[in-house]
Amino acid sequence: MTTVLCDADSLIKLTKAGAKETVVRHLRVIIPAQVKREVVDEARGKPDSTLIERNIRDSHMQVIAPNIQNKQLESEISELHLLGGEEDLYRLSCVHPYDFISSDDQKFLRVLQVVGKKAITPSTIVVLLFLRNNISRHDAQSFLNNLRVYVSDEEYDLCMNELGGAR
Question: Which phi and psi angles does 102 have, rounded to 5°?
């Protein structure tokens, strides 16, 4: 099963789009402990937070605390100017096997590209599920339409084109 490490932005957008339940059924989703703090503990009571907390409790999403003491890695993180969930996510990506890192933060995505880590946005997760026949074109289009307010027109158009272009 494909493993995706998610940041807070990605989880929240997938949840708002109504896609998160489908994503956790077809992909192994892992979040670092700091991301859990951001999206569950610090946002307690919000609808997105409740849904994400349920996924964690029901083992549909895994939380891993990347406990690693490595001066070189910490120096690298400092040089990349990563903070909070992205810092913990980057640290986790250095010690845990994964297929993609999912984020919707453009600055973080650029950092991941520069250091050669495979990254994917929430919109491209939807396309991936469609291309793997995990979801129908109709469901993929619906999820992308729900994500549209959170992504650029360019990303939306590219993803819709991957589905066959119908809007």
Answer: -105, 125
